[in-house]
Amino acid sequence: MELHYDNPAMISGTVDSSGMRMYYTSTAREYDAGILTFGHDITPDQIIPPNAKSFTTTAILTGECTEAILPEDGIRVFGNFLHTHVVGHGLTVQHFRKNPECDVYEELEPIDRNLQYDFNYQQITHLKREVVIKPGDVVQLKCFYGTEGVDGVTLGGLSTRNEMCFTFLVYYPAVDFQIAISRIESSALRDYLKSLPSGDQIVNGTEIDYSKLNTVDWDVDKFQETVDESMQGAFCRGEGNAIYRVTKFPEIGCPYIAPDQCTTEATEATEGGVVLRASVALLLLLSLLAATLG
């Protein structure tokens, strides 16, 4: 259990009365469940420009990680906990699987998705259907931020005034899969910052002066393109393995197309109406026959 406290005004005399209730059973369940922590590395290299209507941070769980750590039958995800801080307004957990007909990867139905995320109402979501993640599958987490009216850049960090991009997949059977994180390669970020008019002041050798980022006249679209297309450093740990890969986000040959819920519901309603009208017509016919025979 981990509690975080944020008291920037240094208010005294506040008492925390929160707690938790735990249950136990003498009968062991068939499977142990596990929680996989997955997201963007907690680092100021996660840069979210100011005055952005929407800016996306993406984290990747590589196929090399799932291939090396997951059991042959995969794991079954039944719950999930999405997490950003206050400028986050949406998250989606994407699921990709190799398919030769799709030029390597097919995008499956999202594992979880909340485009109306509110930091003040966080909860574990119990999925409608269990999702099987197999060895070789790729998982991506996209976090969407809005910084209109925010003064200065927002950097990744532990404070509520910083940002995070994480999800916690609840699954079974439990395996030794502890964490998976990724971030833009430092050299790619430095190269972009150096290309800016004030780049020489921001980057000194391999060091970035994050305090100077507020002097930048940010081109949000250009920076988004740089982050999305640059090499990513992806790390995972489990089953005695620590795997680091420099990779790019996968190109998807067959994107997922969500079913049209309105059309589906309308079709079901229409089909139901047809059945109802047929039943009424049959009853009327039987009534007429009964009256005639009577």
Automatic annotation (TrEMBL):
Pfam families: Cu2_monoox_C. GO terms for biological process: dopamine catabolic process; norepinephrine biosynthetic process; octopamine biosynthetic process. Keywords: Disulfide bond, Glycoprotein, Monooxygenase, Oxidoreductase. Residues 31-192 form the Copper type II ascorbate-dependent monooxygenase C-terminal domain. The keyword Zinc-finger does not apply. Belongs to the copper type II ascorbate-dependent monooxygenase family. This is DBH-like monooxygenase protein 1 homolog.
